[in-house]
Specification:
Helix content of chain A: 55-70%
Strand content of chain B: 5-15%
Structural class of chain B: alpha/beta
Number of strands of chain A: 10
Strand order of the largest sheet of chain B: 6-7-8-3-9-10
Radius of gyration of chain A: 38 Å
CATH superfamily of the largest domain in chain B: P-loop containing nucleotide triphosphate hydrolases
Radius of gyration of chain B: 35 Å
Oligomer: heterodimer
Shape of chain A: elongated
CATH topology of the largest domain in chain B: Rossmann fold
Number of strands of chain B: 10
CATH class of the largest domain in chain B: Alpha Beta
Shape of chain B: elongated
Number of domains of chain A: 2
Strand content of chain A: 5-15%
CATH architecture of the largest domain in chain A: Up-down Bundle
Chain lengths: 600, 589
């Protein structure tokens, strides 16, 4: 709970003005609630009872009473309005603040950090956790107002009658205590229900994502059973929540009611001994009635605290995450193809099992280097190091002799363009996706599209360059998306172009045209490749095996001296040759049998 | 076939919803009786006040023992009604949660029963919402808003009845004050709902922006577009905040308005009551009790907007779930489907045509017979109809015209369990579940032992790969299998299908992301294990075609060539062209 109040403290420090205004409005509301009860008591004492007793209405007192009642209500209404609107403004501002800070951090933190955090988690931190963190801010001003209300009520009752005050001092702490017990009991069960709700959602998400596999293997029943088990757990947890709520809510309502009855009981004795007037008795009873509901706001704040602390902690973990990319001040040359150098580079997602170990190689300006290796040999990781999406654990990656870590912010993207294996399109127009904010004329965009063999389908799109693509835009095939991603790299005329299997969904004929076009570009090109046609276009090959460079040289040299490489790239040819040989044997055997028959 | 956007009325929605989850009705009558009893508790205080004032205060000598006994009786009644309230709550939670768990289960199951075609017309997230968020919305409403409607409604009725007993004139006055609020509520709620819709839309923008910064993290860094992305997200977040505050401003109004109206009612009752008191038509106790009764009007009206809003959301959610359940499983498990005996399988396509709804034909007049134990390669350019052929063969979709038969039986007449046992497809995207390697392979045959899993991998020539994994079969594969490479995921998917031991194995570019050496090893192993079965491979690498008994060539939705590789290669045509471009792509010059 102390942590919870600390979270609230942060919010107050961040938005002191709004908070003060909200609390003031709420205090007005609190005081006016007590005054409303007093006004009613005054009306009873000075207008109602005399009227009934004497048979005539003292019209002056009656008018005053009516004015008092409507007047206090007016101020109370203003207080409520201010409190609610200001509390909302504060809550939403803090949410927006957290969201902004978290997403800034997502953009700032290095890619290696992203690798360690699942997408779903990061999304929910910026969305639901940022919301949960500031959940208590909505009822907070009201709770503060209630405290003011309680003080005012206490003063009012003590002034009225000490005996009645004793009833109040018994009832209100009891309500507060009950509230506390309620929230203590509820919090763990509610948290569990929340977790189960997330897990039900996870199962559904995963199962629907894998719907095709479920269907093709006929596992619908098993999946339905798996889901129902979670749904039933959630049901039980929700019923458990219901039991607690079902018990405490009526209790919290019954307590003030019992309080009023106690006031009436004690009050009637005090009235008999003429220690209080009937107006005062009505005033105190009415006050208890009015307090019954607002006092629960204290509980609402307490109820939100555990969720708030969890949410805030999760957001804070993102904000506190360190290891951001540091930038130097060096500049890379502005033109001419880049010279690349990797010196003893080691990198691991898990430090125990590095993906790359002591990788060293050089590529001269303007060369096209094919990066070849079996599945999982570290090719993609190497491309990310070359584009400085990640920094090596040991060793140096340098372009034109400059360690990439020394380059000023923005310097690497200005020189190096990487097209990753997984195509990503922004929720933006074709133009936006190609330029990504750079101010480039349409001719350059079209030229890049042409080079990426994407001009044909883009010009066929309903709005050409302005057609929206991405998640909520036009549906493009995998190959078309890849070609847009490629154009995005080409339009920058990078000095180093890195293609990480970036044409895997493109038809071979189209791919060939792209690769031939690329040779005309004045860039150094690194291309991750399996296909012989791609490798054939490269000047040299770097062959990776289990995170180390097994060989580096011209394709023909590697074919001769590197067995692993030969096995990999000639797999299809060898297979065909073997099959042809086997067929020869088969034919020979057939022929043999035939001959045998003839002989027989 | 898309999800039905049938606009059924609210009443019809609720009726249908109740029919689907009979648990809602269980003990409903008892719960309602308890609700009435619980509500009566609310008028105990006004009655007690009236009694104390009339019997105690105004009498010359208050009869204290009578007052005391009366108040103790009231206290007992309060405790009793609280108890009723407790029992009612528990019953309500139990009934609604049980009904909702059933609804979730039915919805989930039905989503899996929908054809892939229907599944693909909806966004995944939307389908998930049907069994999560939408149900939660109904749950919140039933346990809070729905309860509130019952309790508040009863509260208004009970209060009005008691008021009318005291004085019909004052009752009319109170209602005259509150009636405009009651009438204004729905109008006001519509305004609030509109603002909330804007909030939801803006929230969608924020989610899209945030997901861009996470999913696109590599591209954003590679192109140095952090600042631009940050600006886009900031704009979305600001839009969301503004919409939220705009909504809050409207919602902030209901409470104060009700307070003001209540105060006017109180003042009016005071003035009129005193006048009536002069004629002795009302006692002072009754008048004061009236003032207490007016407070019972405040809460229902203050909560009214929010309750109506939640009701609307809940009905909308319910409607959406019913929409899913109403969507016919257009590829349905036949009621009295045939169960085919195990054994080598023959396939026949008879004049099969297929077109997506409102789309041009994808397959035309496809007729082909595949005898048992043959191994077929299906080739063709992207969009030629290969994958549609596979989907029809596994009955992921039904043909628009013609028939698909296995062992002479129409697929539409074969029980799903039998069909799925005999025909298994390995799709291109080897989707894995977030558990261990073993659990994922076992998905193909749940009762397989670890030894059988290892044996299956060994038979597929993947023993070395398995040995290379840090934790062997226990290796966690991560969400969607993302801890493994795309190629490795395909290996698992293949092992999973192989373990299922089908009579017909259908591979839809199942090894496209595997490196050539592994693919060749795998192809060789598959060659062995598919011997004696019918096997169909959709191939983009023609090495597969060379190894097959026969090749079927698709172009523009038709079968244009068919025959062994060795024959087709010699004929001028689509296959010879494909082969030529493939060899240049994979062979050294």
């Amino acid at each position: 709970m102390r942590q919870g109040f600390r979270v609230i403290g942060h919010a107050i420090k961040a938005e002191p003005g709004i908070f003060t205004a909200a609390v003031l409005a709420s205090a007005v509301y609190g005081v006016m609630t007590v005054l409303a009860a007093w006004a009613l008591g005054w009306a009873t004492e000075h207008a109602v009872l005399p009227a009934f007793k004497d048979g005539g209405a003292p019209s002056g007192a009656l008018a005053t009473a009516a004015l008092l009642i409507v007047g206090t209500a007016l101020f109370k209404a203003l207080g409520i309005m201010g409190r609610r609107i200001l509390a909302g403004i504060m809550q939403f501002r803090m949410q927006a603040r957290s969201r902004r800070a978290a997403t800034r951090q997502y953009l700032r933190l290095p890619l290696s950090w992203h690798h360690r955090h699942p997408t779903g988690q990061l999304l929910s931190i910026a969305n639901s956790d940022a919301e949960a963190a500031w959940g208590p801010l909505a009822p907070l001003p009201m709770a503060v107002g209630v405290i003011v209300m309680l003080f005012a009520a206490a003063v009012a009752i003590v002034i009225t009658d000490p005996m009645l005050a004793i009833v109040g001092f018994l009832i209100f702490p009891a309500i507060a205590l009950l509230n506390l017990v309620y929230q203590r009991r509820l919090a763990p069960i509610a948290t569990r229900a929340q977790e189960l709700r997330a897990s039900v959602s996870e199962v559904a998400h995963e199962s629907f994502d894998g719907a095709l596999v479920v269907k093709t293997l006929g596992r619908e029943d098993a999946e339905a059973a798996r889901f129902q088990a979670r749904a039933d757990e959630l049901r039980d947890a929700n019923i458990a929540v219901g039991r607690i709520r079902g018990l405490f809510d009526p209790l919290l309502e019954a307590l003030p009611t019992l309080g009023v009855l106690a006031v009436l009981l004690v009050g009637s004795y005090r009235l008999a001994s003429q220690d209080v007037t009937s107006g005062e008795l009505i005033q105190v009873s009415y006050l208890f009635t009015l307090l019954a509901f607002p006092i629960r706001a204290l509980g609402w704040v307490l109820a939100e605290l555990p969720r708030s602390v969890v949410g805030w902690t999760r957001v804070q973990e993102v904000l506190d995450a360190t290891g951001s990319m540091e930038y130097g001040t060096a500049a890379l040359p502005a033109d001419a193809p880049a010279r690349i150098e990797a010196r003893a580079v080691t990198y691991g997602y898990d430090p125990e099992a590095p993906v790359l170990r002591g990788v060293s190689f050089e590529a001269a300006p303007g060369r096209t280097v094919a990066l070849v290796g079996p599945t999982g040999s570290g090719k993609s990781t190497l491309t990310q190091l070359l584009a400085r999406l990640i920094d090596p654990d040991q060793g140096v990656v340098a372009v034109d002799g400059v360690d990439l870590r020394e380059v000023a912010r923005g310097g690497v993207p200005a020189s190096v363009s990487l097209v990753p294996q997984q195509t990503f399109l922004f929720d933006d127009s074709v133009r936006g996706n190609v330029t990504i904010g750079a101010d480039l004329p349409d001719e350059r965009v079209w030229a890049a599209l042409r080079l990426a063999q994407a001009d044909g389908f883009v010009s066929a799109l309903p709005e050409g360059l302005d057609t929206r693509v991405g998640e909520r835009g036009a549906t493009l095939s995998g190959g078309q998306r890849q070609r847009l991603a490629l154009a995005r790299a080409l339009v920058r005329e990078p000095r180093l172009l890195i293609l990480d299997d970036a044409t895997s969904s493109v038809d071979p004929q189209v791919e060939k045209r792209i690769l031939v076009g690329l040779r005309e570009q004045a860039s150094t090109v690194i291309v991750v490749a399996y296909r012989m046609a791609t490798i054939a276009l490269a000047d040299e090959v770097v062959y990776l095996e289990q995170g180390v460079i097994a060989d580096h040289g011209a394709h023909e040299q590697l074919l001769v001296r590197c067995a692993g490489y030969r096995d990999l790239v000639t797999a299809y040819e060898r297979e065909e040759a073997e099959r042809a040989a086997a067929e020869l044997v088969d034919e020979a055997e057939l022929a043999g049998e035939f001959e045998g028959e003839v002989v027989a | 076939m898309t999800m039905q956007a049938l606009e059924r009325s609210a009443v019809e929605t609720v009726r249908q919803g109740f029919r689907l989850s009979p648990e809602f009705r269980r003990g409903l009558a008892g719960t309602l009786v308890l609700a009435v009893l619980a509500t009566i508790g609310k008028i105990i205080v006004p009655i007690a006040v009236q009694q104390v004032v009339d019997e105690g205060l105004t009498a010359a000598v208050p009869d204290l023992p009578v007052i005391r006994n009366g108040l103790l009786a009231c206290a007992a009644a309060v405790v009793l009604t609280a108890l009723c309230s407790y029992v009612m709550n528990v019953r309500l939670y139990r009934a609604t949660e049980s009904g909702l768990a059933t609804l979730r289960g039915k919805g989930f199951r039905h989503v899996h029963d929908l054809s892939v075609l229907t599944q693909n017309t909806e966004r995944r997230g939307a389908l998930v919402s049907r069994v999560t968020g939408d149900v939660d919305q109904i749950s919140t409403f039933m346990q809070w808003g729905g309860l509130m409607i019952i309790v508040a409604g009863l509260q208004l009725i009970v209060a009005t009845v008691l008021m009318a007993v005291y004085s019909w004139q004052l009752t009319l006055l109170v209602w005259a004050c509150f009636l405009p609020v009651v009438f204004a509520l729905p109008r006001f709620q519509r305004l609030v709902a509109r603002r909330y819709i804007t909030v939801r839309e803006r929230t969608g923008d924020v989610l899209a922006g945030v997901s861009e910064s996470v999913v696109g993290s590599a591209v954003i860094r590679a192109y140095g577009s952090e600042d631009r992305t940050a600006d886009r997200i900031d704009a979305a977040i600001n839009g969301q905040r503004k919409a939220q505050i705009r909504a809050q401003r409207v919602i902030g109004l209901t409470f104060p308005v009700t307070e003001l109206v209540a105060s006017i009612a109180i003042a009016g009752v005071l003035i009129l009551g005193v006048a009536l008191g002069a004629d002795k038509t009302i006692t002072e106790g009754e008048l004061i009790a009236f003032l207490f009764l007016i407070t019972l009007f405040i809460m229902p009206l203050q909560m009214g907007t929010e309750v109506l809003n939640e009701a609307q959301n809940a009905i909308a959610g319910w409607r959406r779930i019913l929409g899913v359940l109403d969507t016919p499983a257009d590829v349905a498990d036949p009621a009295d489907g045939a169960v085919l005996p195990r054994g080598p399988i023959s396939v026949a396509f008879e004049d099969v045509g297929f077109a997506y709804p409102d789309g041009p034909p994808v397959l035309r007049e496809v007729t082909a017979a595949i005898p048992p134990r043959t191994r077929i390669a299906v080739v063709g350019e992207t969009g030629s109809g290969k994958t549609t052929f596979a989907k029809l063969l596994t009955r992921l979709m039904d043909p628009t015209s013609g028939r698909v038969l296995i062992d002479g039986a129409d697929l539409r007449d074969i029980r799903f369990s039998s069909l799925r046992e005999r025909v298994v497809m390995v799709p291109q995207d080897g989707f894995l579940f977030d558990s261990s390697l073993a659990e994922n392979i076992r998905f193909g045959r749940p009762d397989a032992t670890d030894e059988e899993l290892t044996a299956a991998l060994t038979e597929l020539g993947l023993a070395d790969w398995l040995d290379g994994l840090p934790q062997g079969l226990r290796t966690p594969v991560g969400q969607r299998g993302e801890s493994l490479s795309a190629g490795e995921r395909q290996l698992v998917a293949l092992a999973r299908a192989y373990l299922a031991d089908p009579d017909l194995l259908l591979l839809d570019e199942a090894t496209s992301a595997v490196d050539p050496a592994t693919e060749v090893r795998l192809a060789r192993a598959l060659d062995g294990v598919t011997r004696g079965r019918t096997a169909i491979s959709i191939a983009h690498r023609l090495s597969t075609a060379e190894a097959a008994d026969e090749v079927i060539v698709f172009e523009h939705g038709r079968i244009v060539q068919r025959g062994p590789h060795a024959t087709l290669i010699t004929e001028p045509g689509v296959y010879a062209d494909l082969y030529a471009s493939w060899t240049t792509a994979t062979r050294s010059a």
